[in-house]
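Quick note —
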Amino acid sequence: MHTRARTHQSPSRRQFPSRLARVVRTALLALVSVGAVGTAVAPSAQAAIVAASAQTSVEYGNANCGDTVMGAPVIGNARFLRSGDRMTTRYVMSAGDANTQYEVWLYDGDACAPLRRLGTFSSDAAGAGAFTSKQVGVAGSSRFYAVAVDLSTFPGLVHSSLAVDLP
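Predicted structure written out below.
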């Protein structure tokens, strides 16, 4: 009887691959159809989710709207990651002022205007420190730079990254 039970189950096992093939085929056709409609209807929506990134230098004492200051020492770097209308910024200082608290801002490089305060970080005894922002909205902007303002000076000494283009 044990043998008959196995024999009885065999036909359904043989049918399983054909059912599975039918389900997979239906799912693939649905995905292809959705992809074709998405491409035909909204190519800009698909482009908006493509991520782009750029990294650039941070210059000591630079308050020049994302442009370089001749002779300004490079004290770190900034990395920008854009995904659609959202941006994450990583600001790394490797040779800033020791034991200093900084406030980090994201700027619109075309308007030379602040977009958003990102947060704060402190440097260690060697003048090193880093900050990574949460994702922030940047719709309508395509050129960016990050600024760290020394909170111990008035007005705050500014250390700016160079501007990057991320449309």
